[in-house]
Amino acid sequence: MARRLDCSRRNSRTVQRQASVLNPPELGADTNNRCCWNRLWFVQDICGIICAVLTWLLVLYAEYVVVFVILLPSPYLYYSAVNFVIFQTLAFLAITSHLRTMFSDPGAVPRGNATKETIQQMGLCDGQVVYKCPKCCCIKPDRAHHCSVCQRCIKKMDHHCPWVNNCVGEKNQKYFVLFTFYIAVISSHAFFLAISHFIMCVNSDWNKCSSKSPPATVILLILLIFEALLFAIFTCVMFGTQVQAIWNDETGIEQLKKESVRWQKRSPWRSLRSVFGRFSLVWFSPFTGPSLNLNKLDGYLHAV
């Protein structure tokens, strides 16, 4: 017992030094998957970049049809104004959430830090070992998985999403959940507006219901209805699976692989707070993230 207490005190005295070794603060120490003079995280994957650009184009198409085909030609001023403000606000939050997810470090472990000197500096006690990733040569924390696209080990990796060209992990899961939420909401809103406008055009024999010709209006509305319905279903399912995983304190990979629980599970409320922070309106803001304890090293040590 005395030996364990002594080891605990020794580890607590060196926690800051160990954290600086495992998580070097200088950006220049690891330039992989970074852009803009190492200021932003960016995965250089052509498939993910195409999917991300396609996401922006689909949102822009919905913007064009909703604004210039549905709202501006509408004779109801207040109806158009209210729906314009709602749609633009939700679209702005959705795009911001997407960008934050895409350009945020998901919790990548520094590459090549599994050196003999680093392991010695961690001051391991008897019966404690660390795991080394053979692919990126890093000290692999518990619940971390290696992503073949990012070529890094990601802490609490949920999955790699090509639509955001990034992994969803410990540091950016909130932004991804908000992205799926806001896309689901604006898709449902666009679907409602398109159906309502289509019915209005049919009842008015296509007179003054759009600045476009009737065939063009029909094609634009049908494409918007199809897009909105498809993405509303897809993002609602994704949002539900993300919330369920957070509620159960599991990641998508852990659920898929049915991994045995080696960590101490948190309560659903504490698990939600670990992703979104303290409950307030900032839960719905993509401009703030939860404060993570980056100096905590428990996930790196394993007792055997």
Automatic annotation (TrEMBL):
Gene Ontology CC terms: membrane
PROSITE patterns: DHHC (PS50216)
A Pfam family the protein falls into: DHHC
Keywords carried by this UniProt record: Acyltransferase, Membrane, Transferase, Transmembrane, Transmembrane helix
Record-annotated Palmitoyltransferase DHHC domain positions: 132-258
GO MF annotation: an example: protein-cysteine S-palmitoyltransferase activity
Known catalytic reactions: L-cysteinyl-[protein] + hexadecanoyl-CoA = S-hexadecanoyl-L-cysteinyl-[protein] + CoA
Transmembrane segments: 46-70, 76-95, 175-199, 219-240
Keyword Transmembrane among record annotations: yes
Topology in membrane: Multi-pass membrane protein
This enzyme's EC code(s): 2.3.1.225
Lineage top rank: taxon: Eukaryota
InterPro entries reported for this sequence: Palmitoyltrfase_DHHC, PFA4/ZDH16/20/ERF2-like
Localization in the cell: Membrane
Keyword Membrane set for record: yes
Domain notes: The DHHC domain is required for palmitoyltransferase activity.
Family per similarity comment: Belongs to the DHHC palmitoyltransferase family.
Protein's recorded name: Palmitoyltransferase
Gene encoding the protein: ZDHHC3_0
